[in-house]
Amino acid sequence: QVDRYLYPLRLSDDVLLDVMARFQAEMVKGLGRDTNPTAAVKMLPSFVRSLPDGSEKGDFLAVDLGGSQFRAHRVKVFADGKQSSQLESKFYPTPKEVTQGNGAELFDYIADCLSDFMETKNLKHKKLPLGFTFSFPCKQTKLEEGVLLEWTKHFRVRGVQDTDVVSSLRKALQKHQASFDIDVDVLALVNDTVGTMMTCGYDDQRCEVGLIIGTGTNACYMEEMRHISLVEGDEGRMCINTEWGAFGDDGALDDLRTEFDRELDLGSLNPGKQLFEKMISSLYLGELVRLILLKMTKEGLLFNGKVSTALLTKGKIEMKHVSAMEKYKEGLSNTKEILTELNLFPSEEDCVAVQHVCTIVSFRSANLCAAALAAILTRLRENKKLLRMRTTVGIDGGLYKTHPKYAQRLHKAVRRLVPMCDVRFLLSGEGSGRGAALVTAVALRLASQRRRIHSALGPFLLPPDTLRQVRDSMRAELEYGLKRETQANATVKMLPTYVCGTPDGTEKGKFLALDLGGTNFRVLLVKIKSGRRRSVQMYNKIFAIPLEIMQGTGEELFDHIVQCIAEFLEYMGIKGARLPLGFTFSFPCRQTSIDKGTLVGWTKGFKATDCEGEDVVDMLREAIRRRNEFDLDIVAVVNDTVGTMMTCGYEDPNCEIGLIAGT
Questions:
Q1: Which CATH architecture has domain 509-651?
Q2: Are the C-beta atoms of 243 and 218 separated by less than 8 Å?
Q3: Which residue has the higher pLDDT, 60 or 394?
Q4: Is-contact 271 265, C-beta < 8 A?
Q5: What are phi and psi of 308, to 5 degrees?
Q6: What is the pTM of this model?
Q7: Which has the closest alpha carbon to 111: 176, 164, 180?
Q8: pLDDT of 543 higher than 70
């Protein structure tokens, strides 16, 4: 009977695979710059770009706001090769006047608690870096800044939304600095999912997902920078805080939400918001069970139709009751006891039915959570282009930790939905506080690394004044190179090429061209048409020049060039034709005419002997004669810069400079 009644809460694997596909689409929407403004799942960049690598060390503070308690931590991190850290914590209540008061009071309360903690631990006179775990959606533009988008869970603090929570905390701490002698540097704002991932990542380098299932629910994971169009740069990875609690706020899950979900939402602090979270987290599951039991009782299916005042009271059934009722052995007796406390008089059948309601509600929670997690795991696997992936999910939250069967149900569902992912679930032993300290430690490590890199690369950063000096020196060298009396000592040789004009469009005919200058050698046939149907057609073949030829004798090099020409002429079927040839020779040559060029010196790894001081055109003619298979009319020897200027000059008559920046 209960099964029939609660049929809409039971989700098949097909439905879960569909939820998984919907969430994957939402992730893509949230990551896109153009689609993010209308996305329900905000996919917020966290500016955490690296997991701990074990080299972090130091003394850190962390504060953690977001759950049922406020926590202050001191974390000592040791770079001893054993990934070890030491945590000292103190828990403080979060009374309603703090969670639903005004912003100044909230941040003063945090500063008070931190001050008390530092006094307890005798840290008052130390300046320590602090990581701030803040478990609410924030838009971050850097690691130490975050604007609150909206409150979730049971928090409703006035005057904080749309402001930077780090600067609010800093202001509150500054007020304390003078009167209480505390000096703290807030270096990182971290979502609790990110803190959890970092905590677990310190123990297991494979951890790249953080998951919270407690008062609220959310997940983060390491995304490729190339897919995050909200942030500049595409190298490496960054942790994305999905804020998946809002999945379905745009109606994407309306077909799966039941009348009980709708009723619960209407009675919540934030109607229409965090709809996915309201189907999963511990803040809502007890209330969901109460609403179901109330309706079943009113319809005469439970307790002989007799409703108690307690059952009519919002919040009377909490997650701790649901967990107790689902316990393996004492579940039934716990159920009887809890129902009796609610002034209901249950029969044995009533207890079994109520227990079943609890099971169905918490099972649905685990299944929905598994579907969204499976979407993240699939995205990670596809990003890495792997058929099968091993990874670790760092996990925290009261519901996962204290419910007797939740973890097992979640793990089983994930393994069914993503059989190609081998997932290890790692419980965060010390919560997200240690993670915030580790984010701060990683930030300090990366900052120090950046400083070292910056100082090493400093000499390569050329300020405008230096560039102006280079320009002026180059100008002077150009002048020296052009003058007969100073040319011999000039470093910039300014070699005349005997090319006295650029193309004017009247050129036509068939030409051969050779291009030698890198590790490859090109032979080209170029057909030029002039007039109205002006065009250039090119046919070419590339040949390799082996290292032993580049560094052998001059005769071997030019014989190899002629061998390549012979192969090309054969390939094009023009072996008998005596075509004019231009030779691009990308090495410094002293020319006395356009078809004469004496090699000044080899560059770019060429070291062929008996060439320097020789005319390269004569060496090519000699090699052609030695082969005695064809004849060519060598008309011009040209440097590659000149070739580039002429090519571009054919397209644009204004071109009067050729520039090469390559090998």
A1: 2-Layer Sandwich (3.30)
A2: yes
A3: 394
A4: yes
A5: -100, 160
A6: 0.68
A7: 176
A8: yes
Residue type, 25: A
Among residues 424, 522, 590, 621, the one annotated as catalytic is 522
How distant, in Å, are the alpha carbons of 204, 407, 409, 555, 591 from that of 391? 10, 17, 19, 60, 65
Query: Is residue 522 annotated as a catalytic residue, yes or no?
Result: yes
CB 58 within 8 A of CB 254: no
The answer to whether residues 213 and 196 touch, using CB atoms and an 8 Å cutoff, is no
Cβ-count burial of 526 within 10 angstroms (0-12 exposed, 13-18 middle, 19+ buried)?
Answer: middle
Question: In the predicted model, what is the mean pLDDT of residues 624-649?
Answer: 89
CA 626 to chain centre: 61
Alpha-carbon distance of 646 to 640, in angstroms, equals 10
Beta strand 145-148 pairing with 69-78: unpaired
Q: Which residue carries 């034709």 as its tokens? A: 577
Report d(CA 136, CA 453) in Å as an integer.
35
Contact 522, 542 (CB under 8 A): yes
Grade residue 443 by pLDDT with cuts at 50, 70 and 90: confident
Residue 627 burial (CB count, 10 A):
13
Position 432 scores a pLDDT of 65
CB-based burial of residue 287 (10 Å sphere; 0-12 exposed, 13-18 middle, 19+ buried)? buried
- Cα–Cα distance, 107 to 167 (Å, whole number): 10
- pLDDT tens for 287-334 read 999 999 999 999 999 999 999 999 999 999 999 999 999 998 899 999
pLDDT, position 82: 63
The total of other beta-carbon atoms located within 10 Å of residue 370's CB is: 25
* Residue of 210, 206, 204, 202 lying closest to 85 (CA atoms): 202
Asked if 133 and 433 touch (Cβ cutoff 8 Å), the reply is yes
Whether residue 198 contacts residue 51, with contact meaning beta carbons closer than 8 Å, is answered with yes
Instruction: Work out the number of other CB atoms within 10 angstroms of the CB of residue 91.
Output: 12
What would the two tokens of residue 342 be? Answer: 């609610």
- Decide if 640 is catalytic: yes
Could you give the 3-state DSSP secondary structure of residue 237? strand
Q: How far apart (Å, rounded) are the C-alpha atoms in residues 48 and 198? A: 10
Is the pLDDT at 465 greater than 80? The verdict is: yes
- Is there a catalytic annotation at residue 115? no
Residue position matching structure tokens 């939250």: 397
Residue type, 441: A
Report which secondary-structure segment, H or E, holds 456.
helix 431-457
- Catalytic residue chosen out of the listed positions 323, 586, 595, 615: 586
pLDDT at 180: 61
Residue where the block lists tokens 């090119």: 538
Look at residues 203, 194, 193 and name the one whose alpha carbon lies nearest to residue 426.
203
Per-residue model confidence as pLDDT tens digits over 320-332: 999 999 998 899 9
- Write the CB contacts of 232 (distance below 8 Å, at least 6 apart in sequence): none
Q: How far is Cα of residue 646 from the mean position of the Cα atoms in its chain?
A: 45
CA 567 to chain centre: 51
Strands (DSSP E) along 555-639, which ranges?
580-585, 589-593, 596-599, 633-638
Indicate the length of the chain as a whole number.
663
End-to-end CA gap in the chain: 79
Break the chain into its structural domains and give their ranges: 509-651
